[in-house]
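Here is one chain, start to finish.
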Amino acid sequence: MAKLEVYDQNKKKVKEVEAPDEVFSYPVKEHLLYEAVVNYRANQRRGTAATKTRAEVRGGGRKPWRQKGTGRARVGSIRSPLWRKGGTVFGPKPRDYSYQMPKKAKRNALKSALALKLRENHLLLLENINFEEPKTKKGVEFVERLDVTSALVIDWPENKNMFLSLRNIPGITPKGPDQVTVYDVLNHDWLVLSHRAYESLMERLK
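Its structure:
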């Protein structure tokens, strides 16, 4: 079983912990990562795009001119799809784009994402993430000490000072271990976890 180094907030090594093989030795399956990202983005869609058919566009109740004898093309309504300001044919209507991935596939995709971060040496495990007060300035100093510009920082939601200190920093996203998605992991260069969040995440992936 591989070992992961644990650091303090100054990026100094404190200890080592075991890295479960069933997670970090899992093969990086690109098709699973792709499916997980597509699923996440589909579930985020609002699905509110809408257009009006010729029956819904205002006006057009009267026939513009008589059927025969004018020399012009026959037409029944000024709201025909062929006309300017007419209705739309087969346009979008409000719909739900969300769908569910199989639980096992979702779990394995997250394993792949974590294994990829470890392979790239972009996984950072911290013993604790403590902020005495909720200050963005303190958050910036924390990020600079770790030398990361794009990072997903994971700790329990009870650590409110951390969330408030990091939430306004561009490229940095704080989240709880139960909210982590494959999209989040892949959308950031670094993955930073507190030790307790790491243990929770490993329990989730068993």
